[in-house]
Structures are given as C-alpha cells and as structure tokens.
Design brief:
Layout lengths: L1 E5 H5 L13 E4 L5 E7 L2 E7 L7 E5 L11 E8 L8 E8 L6 E8 L6 E7 L8 E8 L9 E10 L13 E4 L4 H4 L16 E4 L3 E7 L2 E7 L7 E5 L9 E11 L8 E7 L3 E7 L5 E8 L1 H6 L2 E6 L8 E13 L1
Antiparallel strand pairs: 1-11, 2-5, 3-4, 4-11, 5-10, 6-9, 6-11, 7-8, 7-10, 12-22, 13-16, 14-15, 15-22, 16-21, 17-20, 17-22, 18-19, 18-21
Length: 329
C-alpha cells in the first residue's frame, strides 16, 4: 500500500491543545467548530468541539494531497465521547463541490454508541480528486446531533498502483424476469428455502411471496414491522468489476394505505445510506433508479429496497429488478 497522506504525520508537529491551522484539515460548516489537539499515550487526536449544528464538522481538501488520483481510497477514523443522544443518529462522510447543493454523503456509520469507534472509507472517482471531504454528524428521528467527536485518523492511500480496469461488456448483469430460480416457481410460493441461491434476499423477517405479474414472477413483501423488514439486492453475487458503472432499477407498487410522509428508497448496506428515495403514493407504481459509484460497489454488500421509519409496516410489491452495465467510469 502506498500512503499519500496521513493525518498522524501532520499532528506530530502540532502542540497538544493548539491548532494553528498548519494541518491540511480545517473546520467546516456554518458556525465553525473549534479544533483542539489532544494526546493520549503518545497518540494525537483532533477534538471537534463547540458544534452549533450537525453540519459543523471537519474536512480535508484533496487538492492539498499531491499525486492523488481516481481509485485511491480515503479512510477516516474517530470516536465519540459520552454525550451521545439516546435517539437514532450517526456520522457521515460528505463530499462537497463548493456549495450546499453540491454536497452528498458517500458513506455513513449508523447508531454509534457512546465511546464507540467509527471508520468511514471511500474510493475516489475522477471528479473527486480535488474536492473537499467533510465529516459531519447526522440524525434520524428526533436526535439533535451536535455532540463533539474525535478525529483519530485520515489516510489517503493507493492499494495497487498497477490495477488494470477492464470493461464489463455484459449488457444485463441481473434481471428478476430472467432469474431462473424465481421464474420456475409457481404463484404464492414462499422463497425462504431458496435464499442461499438467490441474488435477492429478504432482510429482517417479512413474508416474501411470489405472484404472477404479466408474463413474469414478481414479489410481495408483507408482514413488515420494522423498516429493515425488506429485500436486499446482494451486490457480491453480481460479479461487479472495479471501475465500471452499474445502474440498478426497481419498479413496484405500495400495497394499500400508507401514512403521510412514507418514502420508498434504496439503502446502501452497510452504512444505511439513502439513495433514490421517493415519497410513496397509495396503490401507485414507483420506479427507483441508482447508478452505483465505484466506492459504493466496493464497500456495500447489498442495496436494500425498503421504506423509511414512517412507513416501516407498509407492504409493497416488487415487479422488476434490473442491473445493467454502463461501462467504465
């Protein structure tokens, strides 16, 4: 592994308690937080404190890292103190293109307990090699995520400088309509006994049943209690090739009445990152579509078809699942 940047190398030249701005990292967000260097057993960390909002955090501009290129990896590690809200919350690695409208999360750690460690990792795309990467807290539910946190490490590295990117020439990588296991089953069949061979796998404990939709078999996802009672597309079974784009499209319909504010969405696992989230309409078809980034394809084990917590118990149909190769980034 080739190390292009290591936060610990820079922190060694900074006195404990002092942060003069000599490092490449900087406070970010509105109402900038304070940064303070703390030392424990000869290891220095950066305390991000006095945060007035969850957007206040810490960042690093990759334009300050010489030689960085697409395919390199940024890894950020840290931990939290004991002032963690009891509600659901987490931390996100954000890439910024210069404005609030140009920001999006690329990786999330979810529901971190007090004093737990977190680690966030992202493979850089061509458009990101000079961008600002920021670490911010985020919240689900009622949590107000303003807690302080420690930044222990930022590492920009190159795992293999000789990696050869090959073009995935498959047009259709996966299609529910062409899944031989699913399509040979009859109506109203449970798929539980077939889970070890499927590309689609249930998450949690919903009831998955098969029904005829036109000339093909489709899914009904019922008896849902929690938002993770859902369906996962197992990315590891798709044979995705490094450096290629893949578009995943799902069509379906919400079954019956829904609470106001219910959203149907893709969710990257692990990390629980929302993608292609749409407000659900009662008994109307939906289409979810997302192009996997290189980092998502490398870091996620699955892409979940699910709803938000408001609609956690809403049953839904899945009519089609298609994964197509779009070629090299």
């Amino acid at each position: 592994m080739i190390v292009l940047y290591d936060l610990q190398d820079e922190l060694q030249s900074v006195d404990a308690g002092d942060f003069s701005g000599a490092c490449s990292v900087m406070p970010t967000g509105g109402n900038l937080p304070t940064l303070k260097v703390e030392e424990t057993e000869d290891v220095k960390s950066l305390l991000v404190a006095s945060r007035k909002s969850k957007q206040a955090g810490v960042g690093i501009s990759l334009s300050s890292v010489p030689g960085v290129q697409p395919g390199d990896r940024i890894t950020i590690t840290g931990r939290f103190g004991s002032d963690t809200p009891s509600s659901s919350w987490g931390i996100a690695l954000i890439v910024s293109e210069g404005s609030a409208d140009g920001q999006h999360d690329v990786q999330k750690a979810h529901q971190i307990a007090p004093k737990d460690l977190f680690s966030l990792s992202h493979i850089l795309e061509a458009s990101e090699t000079e961008k600002l990467f920021m670490l911010q807290t985020t919240s689900w539910g009622l949590a107000t995520a303003h807690m302080d946190f420690y930044l222990d490490g930022i590492l920009v590295s190159r795992v293999n400088a000789e990696t050869i990117i090959e073009h995935d020439r498959r047009g259709t990588v996966y299609s529910l309509k062409e899944d031989p296991v699913i399509q040979r089953l009859g109506d109203n069949k449970s798929i539980q006994e077939f889970t070890s061979t499927l590309t689609l796998l249930k998450s949690g404990s919903p009831t998955l049943s098969i029904f005829k939709h036109g000339d093909t078999n489709a899914f009904h996802v019922g008896n849902r209690v929690r938002d993770w009672d859902a369906v996962d597309i197992l990315l590891e079974k798709l044979g995705l090739m490094q450096g290629n784009k893949y578009e995943i499209t799902v069509t379906g319909r919400i079954d019956g009445k829904i609470p106001e504010g219910t959203m149907i969405m893709f969710q990257g696992i692990p990390g629980y990152s929302w993608r292609s989230n749409k407000f659900a309409a009662e008994d109307k078809e939906f289409t979810l579509s997302h192009v996997l980034t290189q980092s998502e394809a490398a870091n996620w084990t699955s892409l979940r078809i699910t709803t938000n917590t408001i609609g956690a118990a809403v049953p839904f149909y899945i009519y089609s699942v298609d994964v197509k190769s779009l070629g090299v980034f």
